[in-house]
Amino acid sequence: QVRLVESGGGLVQPGGSLRLSCAASGSIFSIYGMGWYRQAPGKQRELVARLTITSGRTTYAESVKGRFTISRDNAKNTVYLQMNSLKPEDTAVYYCNAETPNIAYWGQGTQVTVSS
Predict the structure, then answer these.
(1) Residue range 101-111: mean pLDDT, rounded
(2) What is the four-CA torsion angle of 109, 40, 35, 48, rounded to 10 degrees?
(3) Model confidence at 54: pLDDT above 90
(4) Most CB atoms within 10 A, among 20, 40, 64, 90?
């Protein structure tokens, strides 16, 4: 069992920055990938960024490339999503995801609102 707790969402003006955090606990040894997804009202959940734990390889959605960065702190079992140059279209609930061989785990979500 893996537990994910997200934090760091909020309201920010266009062009601003936010950093999301996802702290993992439990059977973290089984995790081979972690990522951030988002879901805007009336839209499907989409991948924002993903990190392969073993290789360190990162993947980004085209819409966030150059603006968002996914990273991890192994000592804190935490994955971050640094979001810069935020746009109104980035407004969504952001979910942390952890992949294990048998199941994918999700956090509770954190709201990010980009508005002036």
Answers:
(1) 95
(2) -150
(3) no
(4) 20
